[in-house]
Amino acid sequence: MGMSDEHLHLHPSTRRFADEDAQSRIRRIRTDRWIGYARAEAVLAALEDLLSFPRRTRMPNLLLVGPTNNGKTMIVEMFRRAHPGTAAEGNDDGMALLPVVKVQMPSGPDEGRFFGAILDALGMPFSPRDRIAAKQDTAVRVMRAAGTRMLVIDELHNVLSGSAMQQRRLLNLLRWLGNELQIPLVGVGTAEALRAIRSDDQLVNRFQPYPLPLWSDDEEYRRLLSTLEAVLPLRKPSHLADTALAARILSASEGVLGEMIAIIIRAAVRAVDTGAEAISARVIEDTGFIRPSERRRVAV
Ligand SMILES: Nc1ncnc2c1ncn2[C@@H]1O[C@H](COP(=O)(O)OP(=O)(O)OP(=O)(O)O)[C@@H](O)[C@H]1O
Ligand SMILES: [Mg+2]
């Protein structure tokens, strides 16, 4: 019987790592991983639902809105990976299929750069000197041929970095694109993205907003802490979901998911380094974590 039988605070798939040396465990702690939580699962289900929606002239669209660093991109990236493209060789007509295309709205956006971003995502070479109409034609033709059934536009708030004229043109373009391809559009961005969509009467009716708000101390938050604790190979239980520790992490992170995860990962690394083997308020303190709002004030 090995030591690993004892680590009941860990997820069964993590237990076997608890006996590894510090270096390997720290590498594991720092490795990107998907942590599921109810709200993310609900968004993924809504996206799944959209993807299977029958084609029609007016497709419903979705707008994932939330503060920065709060897990929006992770969700759509997770979704895209769940619907990978299939290589050309596998298909009868020799055309690669790409059901979900994900792009970022360029900052300083114009139609040319936007279509450039789509062509990049499709792996289509183009020259920056190509006319907008040519890029647009190619983008639409290739998405049709690739059987694209959803277009995800991250950083949609970047629309607002253009002039009033450019904003109008881009919003018109989104409306046109959805109609032309008859596929749902998924916008992702901060509250500013919602503001941009709301400036267009026709678009606002077609985008169902999905908020991804800051976290507060509730059951879902406590569950997230327990999930995280179970996948970090520390040898002792930290009881992250206990009231005092949960409150400490929430206040340091100011309710931002990415911050919560960063705090816990830093503390877990420190817990391995120092041999403490569990995260405590003290360990978190010792990592010298700076709150996001303070960080913005730090002079450089
Ligand atoms: N489900 C998750 N599982 C694990 N880590 C996550 C998850 N969601 C978010 N994170 C962590 O939070 C960080 C920020 O997430 P993400 O990049 O998705 O935020 P965002 O809302 O897109 O922010 P921005 O508006 O600035 O683009 C990620 O780099 C990752 O470390
Ligand atoms: Mg993002």
TrEMBL record:
<feature type="region of interest" description="Disordered">
    <location>
        <begin position="1"/>
        <end position="22"/>
    </location>
</feature>
<dbReference type="InterPro" id="IPR008868">
    <property type="entry name" value="TniB"/>
</dbReference>
<dbReference type="InterPro" id="IPR027417">
    <property type="entry name" value="P-loop_NTPase"/>
</dbReference>
<protein>
    <submittedName>
        <fullName>TniB family NTP-binding protein</fullName>
    </submittedName>
</protein>
<dbReference type="Pfam" id="PF05621">
    <property type="entry name" value="TniB"/>
</dbReference>
